[in-house]
Amino acid sequence: MDQQLVKQIEDICSARGVRLTTQRKRVFELICASAKASSAYELLEELKQSEPQAKPPTVYRALEFLLEQGFIHRVESTNSYIQCVSCNAHKHFSQLLICDGCGSVIELQDDSLIALLAKNAEKHGFAINNHVIESHGTCQACISDKEK
């Protein structure tokens, strides 16, 4: 686990006057430790290893906090969660590349894509306030495995 990243979110929380509880921090660490998106129940099972008394509301409240602060993203199509690559360094919209083979998720930030979407919406008098751009396919590692 990248302790510098944990320190970064601790500092952001302190600056915002919000509380990064031990459980919120632990859920964030679990999300960061996984190469793939994690569901709430996967996170609960992992959290129970260090906190046997943990219940679903504990995880859901932590996820809600982490989402509100911009530290994680929700993968809508799989109802799972990944770390935000910029940890809310700035407000942004992302494109998620989701491997249907191994479950890995890559977050991309492409300002030209977002600008094109905004331009297309504007043509129709529509103001976008949120994007969920998810592309499913096969990652390079899974493609390479299939070729062997």
UniProtKB/TrEMBL annotation:
Cofactor, free-text remark: Binds 1 Mn(2+) or Fe(2+) ion per subunit. Binds 1 zinc ion per subunit.
GO biological process: negative regulation of DNA-templated transcription; regulation of secondary metabolite biosynthetic process
UniProt key word Repressor: yes
GO MF annotation, one: transcription cis-regulatory region binding
Cofactor(s) the protein needs: Mn(2+); Fe(2+); Zn(2+)
Cellular localisation: Cytoplasm
Keyword presence, Lyase: no
Alphabetical list of SUPFAM superfamilies matching this protein: Winged helix' DNA-binding domain (SSF46785)
Keywords of this entry: Cytoplasm, DNA-binding, Iron, Metal-binding, Repressor, Transcription, Transcription regulation, Zinc
Residues annotated to bind Zn(2+): C99, C102, C139, C142
Coiled coil: none
InterPro entries given in the database record: FUR (IPR002481), Fur_C (IPR043135), WH-like_DNA-bd_sf (IPR036388), WH_DNA-bd_sf (IPR036390)
CDD domains referenced in this protein's UniProt entry, alphabetically: Fur_like
Chief place where the protein resides: cytoplasm
Record-listed Fe cation binding positions: H131
GO terms under cellular component: cytosol
Stated family: Belongs to the Fur family.
Subunit structure: Homodimer.
Name used for this protein in its record: Ferric uptake regulation protein
Species of provenance: Vibrio caribbeanicus ATCC BAA-2122
